[in-house]
Structure prediction request, 465 residues.
Amino acid sequence: MTPLPKLLVIGGSAGSLDVLIQLLPELEPEWPLAMIIVLHRKAGSDTLLSELLSAKTCLSVKEAEEKDMLLPGCIYVAPADYHLLIEPDGSLTLDASEKVHYSRPSIDVTFISAAEVCGGHLYCLLLSGANMDGAEGMQAVHESGGFTSVQDPATAEAPFMPKYAINTARVDKVFNIREMIDFVKGLKA
Amino acid sequence: MDHLHHLKDEDVLLLLNDLLEQYGYDFTDYSFASVKRRLQRVYIADRFPGFAEFRYKVKTDAGYLVHLMEQITVNVTEMFRDPGFFRELCRQVLPVLATYPLIRIWHAGCSSGEEAYSVAILLHEMNLLHKSIIYATDINENVLETARRGIFPLQYMQQYSQNYLLSGGQQEFSRYYAANYEYARFSDILKEKIIFAAHNLVTDHSFNEFQLIICRNVLIYFNKDLQDKVLHLFSDSLEQLGFLALGAKETLRFTTVAPLFKPIAHKEKIWRKIAT
Prediction:
């Protein structure tokens, strides 16, 4: 079995789309990790988000489907109204169970699942938002040896979510947007 | 989450083995990540001091098993979820079913029954309910009991009513239930045409032939092999030219039954059986 690629999971809520739209165009075609994006949004908003993000990057962007395998250089967007989990073999599972923090997809759910499978090969990044989602998952990522980071609340349109993570979880790094972009760009396989 | 209260992969495998060996419930072909997450939730919620105590309870307390089963399987459902699907059902499927003297529908994995009631309402509005039977099945006895009662929290009715109208509903949604304190009790006209029964898709066989099988957001929890097995069960349980409806993120693509079906609504995930 080929080993799993290293994984970056980005979670965001209110005010995070702008940040992603600044970040994605800067990634080189050879960017070597797999990326999962979990964004809060209304159910039924369809594939618009992945199309929007796809237009901003040369990497391949797709709405995650069940059984998709995590591949380096690919960006998977959690579909509206489903949680996204990662299986031990690196395939993706969709889950229509209860909302977590009023959200489906929930950032906590994907962070925790990724932490269990990827351990130290995981980076997580929590962006702007007005919700408690992400903090518990971030702590799980830390405990499994992964890297935890948040957008500097001072730069966030909705500072509550990154601030809540800073206050309740072990956060390795607080990034302003420029630092964040440079960090993600520089990630190595 | 502190480490004591964190189930390890080995713990999960042990429990799954217990459920299979002792009770005949086979979750070994379920998505591991999903089952592990469900077990982790129960383990925390029920405040076991450690894994050994959790396992002991599962092995020795049949009453607890019922509770556990309800927690492992996902029982989140709503009426007229994905209105686009129900619109397509009314547009493309029900008019064909109308030509049969007796309409037999299997709703597999019906959970607490909200979707089965939704289908019954649409059949009623097309004046087909009197000659229809909906067999609504689930692995889980507890949720079936809720489904049989047909009593749902009143607080959801506003959203269900919106979904109903988006689905092409033609009446006042409220005519289908009687509000009583915090609950909405659905009409006996609907209930009389739905048979709720236990059926385990993993181990049980076909029990009839149907013109429509609805199974939404169930296959996403199964691995590839089990998906294939269940899809063959559905194919074998469908009449020629019968319809199969799956959840918004489920597909026949890359499955071994794909050649037997032709898609009639891509986005709404409805197929028609064209070969055996």
User: Anything to note?
Assistant: Chain A has one domain: 7-185.
